[in-house]
């Protein structure tokens, strides 16, 4: 027969509820008692049942991470979220979302998880509002919705894009283009605003013929956008890309078109993904600490579970310009 918590209790000389609390690391149980319970559990080969715990506490001890698995940011977020949640006594469940996917709503709203970390929110996304309406704690990471106030962790996208604009201006560029991201994302909105506002302060405009907007933040958006912008005899001397994958697409388009970077056109991205530092790209970009943001989001959702009535927290992480080879030219 399977070993139960009652067997552990008998061996450790404590009650069954004490076994449960001790194995959860409950501070109300003395450390000596917790150690005795752990030793008894190890001796008997006892493994706590999450199903049984869920039935008794009405908590699953699972947190869902809602992510777009095709987004290159995903691998940078999953490990720190997973590790932080484990250290806090929770498991991570990954739910893939593409747009307003009703199946994702159902898996969150059926109470099979205690909370969620949302990384795919659109400005008018329905999901945050639905979770708020149902009382499921959640944190918005990297992106945020305008429809509901919630805990959020974002980068200083405006400041990062403004730094790129100042870099271009300082190098003498006045003919500027951009490949922005989807208009329905807070990241694209804020990066565009930071870039345009800084140029406007310097009396420099971005002509519409030198602007493209992607449907996502993908290589294809960058490749197609750069190709379109560089058509004709008149083209920009510098192009700001919504993120690094867009910039990589732009760089490959430049190579196929025979346009030297930065000799003829400077290029900058955003995020500082690993690919940005590869010797074949050496992309000028904006660095944000995605791993620290992810860890903080995991801590924040657990804190919200512990204190549902606390004031909402909005944290902004700094963004820092990283100059590499794609912006070295001056004009």
How would you explain this protein's 3D organization?
The mean pLDDT is 89. The chain has twelve helices and twelve strands. The radius of gyration is 25 Å and the shape is elongated. Helix content is 43%, strand content 16%. The protein is an alpha/beta fold and 331 residues long. Helix 1 packs across helix 2 (16-23), helix 1 packs across helix 3 and helix 8 packs parallel to helix 9. Strand 8, helix 11 (244-257) and strand 9 form a beta-alpha-beta unit. The strands form three sheets. Strands 2-1-3-4-5-11 form a six-stranded parallel beta sheet, with helices on both faces. A four-stranded parallel beta sheet has the order 7-6-8-9, with helices on both faces. Strands 10-12 form a two-stranded antiparallel sheet. The chain has three domains: 5-48, 434 Repressor (Amino-terminal Domain); 59-155 and 289-317, Rossmann fold; 157-288 and 321-327, Rossmann fold (3-Layer(aba) Sandwich), CATH 3.40.50.2300. It has helices at 5-12, 16-23, 31-44, 50-57, 74-87, 102-109, 126-134, 157-170, 186-201, 219-229, 244-257, 290-306; strands at residues 62-67, 91-96, 115-118, 138-141, 151-155, 176-180, 211-213, 238-241, 266-268, 285-288, 314-317, 319-322. The longest helix is centred in the last third of the chain and has 17 residues, at 290-306.
């Amino acid at each position: 027969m399977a070993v139960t918590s009652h067997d552990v209790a008998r061996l450790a000389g404590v009650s069954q509820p004490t076994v449960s609390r001790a194995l959860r690391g409950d501070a109300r149980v003395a450390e000596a008692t917790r150690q005795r319970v752990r030793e008894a559990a190890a001796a008997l080969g006892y493994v706590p049942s999450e199903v049984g715990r869920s039935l008794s506490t009405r908590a699953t001890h699972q947190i869902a991470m809602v992510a777009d698995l095709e987004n290159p940011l995903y691998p940078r977020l999953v490990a720190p979220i997973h590790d932080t949640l484990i250290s806090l006594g929770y498991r991570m469940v990954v739910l893939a979302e593409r747009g307003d996917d009703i199946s994702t709503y159902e898996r969150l709203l059926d109470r099979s998880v205690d909370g969620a970390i949302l990384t795919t929110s659109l400005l008018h996304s329905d999901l945050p509002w639905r979770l708020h309406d149902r009382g499921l704690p959640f944190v918005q990471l990297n992106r945020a919705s305008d429809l509901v106030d919630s805990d959020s962790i974002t980068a200083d996208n405006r400041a990062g894009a403004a730094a790129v604009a100042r870099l271009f201006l300082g190098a003498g560029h006045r003919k500027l283009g951009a490949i922005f991201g989807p208009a329905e994302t807070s990241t694209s909105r804020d990066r565009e605003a930071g870039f345009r506002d800084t140029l406007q302060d310097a009396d420099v405009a971005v002509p519409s013929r030198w602007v493209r907007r992607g449907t996502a933040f993908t290589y294809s958006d960058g490749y197609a956008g750069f190709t379109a912008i560089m058509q004709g005899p008149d083209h920009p001397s510098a192009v700001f890309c919504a993120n690094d994958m867009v910039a990589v697409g732009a760089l490959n388009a430049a190579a196929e078109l025979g346009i030297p970077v930065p000799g003829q056109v400077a290029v900058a991205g955003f995020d500082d993904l690993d690919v940005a530092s590869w010797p074949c790209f050496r992309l000028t970009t904006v660095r944000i600490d995605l791993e620290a943001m992810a860890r903080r989001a995991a801590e924040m959702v657990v804190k919200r579970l512990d204190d549902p009535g606390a004031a909402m927290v909005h944290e902004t992480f700094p963004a820092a310009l990283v100059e590499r080879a794609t912006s070295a030219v001056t004009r």
